[in-house]
């Protein structure tokens, strides 16, 4: 049996390379093999940090008897959803349509031409909890294919056709002030007044919605919008989803009160939440929001940095085969590490009880209030962190994903500029260097790399959008034109290869010349990460403000109008779209600071601009006479460094003091 996964750049595929299952990677040859053998394709999709993916792998894919059934009756394909988000998106849509829910591991049965006819998620090795046993399912599918193959194929074609109909372009709809205000009102009605956040268990960090609400408050002064952000950010940071010892957020909480997380830590969550907490600290001066932002940035740099300068995709939920074992504590363990006095104090402070909040009497650490003795807390935290480092540690998926690194580059550059942390900006620049030198191959962008070796998967729309956003963030915070000159060709690539030529404002997630799937994927809704189209809209808004391009602005507005029904009807599925709309409604805000390099007055104005600028604004500093579109024609005022603030097409008078600049930027 060929080990076709052994040379993969995906740690998830490598985890399955020694299974007795005859796995194929996603490739044309696998489907050709299915057609020659006249058997269905069994498609299994997951990712390295997924707990239940590990469970199914151990129970079924490592089982020689189950593997024998799979090998005899199917062509088995294993896909890392993080490397192939296009494949994942199509079959997740099918799974949700067939079952009413989705998740990973995802298990789909396909015809040799790729159409799905039966889909599900996790299956146990024997029937339990209302789920059929995986071997029984395999036999049932085999029998259906053998006895009713023509009917199965026809059903698969109908399913594919129905999914295509559901993906038809939305009717154009404006996202104006009324829609933005209504979105806030609708979110307020869905807000969890007791615990913060939206909806019940499981509860996910609503980073995109929080960014939108902050931007809306900055533009309109809406107190309900700010209150939802403050209460949610405080609750998330106090609860078990946030690592109280090392910083960084877990993927989500299994309960509605932010107590027990699903322990994997994802790059994209932490990058997006770093932006939210930075902007909250900037807007309100909150010391706790600033602390969380600083600790989250530290987590990115210390736990997810790779040897080649990028950021790893995730940390696993499990360690030594046990979910959460690295992170949970009992009262006796605290006493063992800290001694009786500090152990008891820590147990009360961190809500560690004999009954426990997790499994087997263990508790997830929470910090419901700021410690009354900060020095004691720092001593305790350091001791617990040192003890935790001696435990088995979660595995790390160290592939570098373009999209998620673009998020990290964006937010580290922004946060570094706001909070005065040049080492964060340097880390963002290092990641950008890696992506530009490794992921751009023959003028086209690839999705991921590992250990400095680029993968084969083509970049999707979100990869292009977030890389552009990250490069333009670096351009703003460093003033270096090289980042802008690198970003704009990638933006042109996206417009050339991903736009729907037949429908203005519609964007496909795969390029026109990408591998053909049973349907070309397109999705206007924001999910755990922003939709590719909404990410591109934000990148276009940023580029338009920096370059003065009316074309970029018009393309962004067309995309927003095409997706307008989503924020109008379901704002929880449109947080990033709403953020783009707020940036446009605010102008977007442009702040140009003019002064000689090294001039203290210029530095003070630039620092004030970054601190007080609303979300979605662009800030750039340069010397008099600069040819940059944002700086050209602007000079010193009475020989003194000056700041110029414009809201779209309307500009304020230039100011020379940080106080006057703040007054302009914080004006209702």
How many separate domains make up the residues? Answer: 4
Strand content: 5-15%
Note the overall shape. Answer: globular
Helix content: 40-55%
Tally of DSSP β-strands: 21
Distance between the termini: 68 Å
Q: Number of helix segments?
A: 25
The CATH architecture term of the largest domain is: Alpha/alpha barrel
Query: The CATH topology of the largest domain is what?
Result: Glycosyltransferase
> Can you tell me the residue ranges where pLDDT is under 50 for at least 5 consecutive residues?
none
Strand numbers in spatial order across the main sheet: 1-3-2-4-5
Please summarize the sheet with the most strands.
5 strands, mixed
Look at the structure and give the CATH class of the largest domain: Mainly Alpha
Our Rg estimate from Cα atoms comes to 26 Å
Mean pLDDT figure: 96
Category from helices, strands and their pairing: alpha+beta
What does this structure look like?
By secondary structure, the chain is of the alpha+beta class. It has 4 domains: about 10-165, Glutaredoxin; about 175-315 and about 395-585, Alpha/alpha barrel (Glycosyltransferase), CATH 1.50.10.10; about 325-390, no CATH class; about 590-665, Glutaredoxin. Helix content is about 50%, strand content about 10%. It has 25 helices and 21 strands. The protein has a 5-stranded mixed sheet, sandwiched between helices. A 4-stranded mixed sheet has the order 19-18-20-21, with helices on both faces. Helix 9 (about 205-220) runs parallel beside helix 11 (about 265-285), helix 11 (about 265-285) packs parallel to helix 16 (about 400-420) and helix 20 packs antiparallel against helix 21. The longest helix is centred in the first third of the chain and has 18 residues, at about 150-165.
């Amino acid at each position: 049996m060929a080990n076709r996964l052994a040379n993969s750049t995906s740690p998830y595929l490598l985890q399955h390379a020694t299974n007795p299952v005859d796995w194929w990677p996603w490739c044309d040859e696998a489907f050709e093999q299915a057609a020659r053998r006249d058997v269905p394709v069994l498609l299994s999709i997951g990712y390295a940090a997924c707990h239940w993916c590990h469970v199914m792998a151990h129970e079924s894919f490592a089982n020689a008897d189950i593997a024998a059934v799979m090998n005899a009756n199917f062509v088995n394909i294993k896909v890392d959803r993080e490397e192939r988000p296009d494949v994942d998106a199509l079959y997740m849509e099918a799974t949700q349509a067939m079952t009413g829910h989705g998740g990973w591991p995802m298990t789909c049965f396909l015809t040799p031409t790729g159409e799905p006819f039966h889909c599900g998620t996790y299956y146990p090795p024997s029937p339990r909890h209302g789920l059929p046993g995986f071997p029984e399912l395999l036999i049932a599918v085999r029998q259906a294919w053998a006895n009713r193959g023509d009917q199965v194929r026809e059903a698969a074609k109908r399913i594919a056709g129905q999914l295509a109909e559901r993906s038809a372009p939305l009717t154009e709809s404006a996202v104006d002030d009324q829609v933005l205000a209504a979105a806030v009102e609708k979110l307020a009605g869905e807000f969890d007044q007791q615990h913060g956040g939206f909806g019940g268990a499981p509860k996910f960090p609503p980073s995109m919605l929080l960014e939108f609400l902050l931007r809306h408050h900055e533009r309109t002064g809406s107190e309900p919008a700010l209150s939802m952000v403050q209460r949610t950010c405080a609750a998330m940071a106090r609860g078990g989803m946030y690592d109280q010892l090392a910083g960084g957020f877990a993927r989500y909480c299994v309960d509605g009160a932010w107590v027990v997380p699903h322990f994997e830590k994802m790059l994209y969550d932490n990058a997006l939440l770093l932006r939210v907490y930075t902007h909250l600290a900037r807007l309100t001066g909150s010391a706790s929001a600033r602390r969380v932002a600083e600790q989250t940035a530290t987590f990115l740099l210390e736990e997810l940095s790779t040897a080649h300068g990028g950021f790893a995709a995730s940390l696993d939920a499990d360690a030594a085969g046990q979910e959460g074992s690295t992170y949970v504590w009992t009262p006796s363990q605290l006493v063992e590490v800290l001694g009786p006095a500090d152990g008891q104090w820590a147990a009360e402070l961190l809500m560690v009880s004999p009954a426990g909040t997790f499994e087997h009497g263990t508790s997830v650490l929470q910090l419901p209030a700021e410690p009354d003795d900060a020095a004691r807390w720092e001593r305790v935290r350091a001791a617990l962190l040192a003890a935790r480092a001696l435990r088995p540690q979660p595995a790390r998926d160290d592939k570098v994903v373009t999209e998620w690194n673009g998020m990290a580059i964006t937010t580290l550059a922004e946060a570094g500029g706001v909070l005065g942390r040049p080492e964060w900006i340097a880390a963002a620049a290092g990641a950008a260097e890696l992506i530009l030198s490794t992921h751009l191959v023959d003028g086209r962008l690839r999705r991921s790399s590992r250990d400095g070796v680029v993968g084969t998967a083509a970049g999707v729309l979100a990869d292009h959008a977030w890389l552009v956003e990250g490069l333009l963030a670096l351009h703003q915070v460093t003033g270096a034109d090289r980042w802008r000159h690198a970003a704009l060709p990638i933006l042109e690539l996206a417009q050339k290869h991903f736009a729907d030529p037949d429908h203005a404002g519609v964007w496909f997630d795969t390029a026109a010349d990408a591998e053909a799937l049973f349907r070309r994927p397109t999705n206007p809704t924001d999910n755990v990460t922003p939709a590719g189209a909404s990410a591109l809209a934000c990148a276009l808004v940023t580029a338009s403000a920096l370059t003065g391009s009316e074309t970029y602005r018009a393309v962004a507005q067309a995309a927003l109008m095409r997706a307008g029904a989503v924020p109008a009807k379901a704002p929880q599925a449109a947080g990033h779209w709403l953020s783009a709309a707020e940036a446009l409604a605010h102008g977007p805000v442009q702040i140009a600071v003019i002064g000689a390099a090294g001039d203290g007055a210029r530095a003070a104005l630039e620092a004030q601009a970054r601190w007080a600028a609303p979300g979605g604004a662009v800030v750039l500093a340069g010397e008099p006479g600069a040819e940059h579109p944002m700086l050209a024609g602007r000079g010193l005022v009475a020989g003194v460094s000056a700041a110029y603030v414009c809201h779209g097409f309307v500009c304020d008078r230039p100011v020379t003091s940080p106080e006057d600049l703040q007054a302009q930027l914080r004006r209702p």
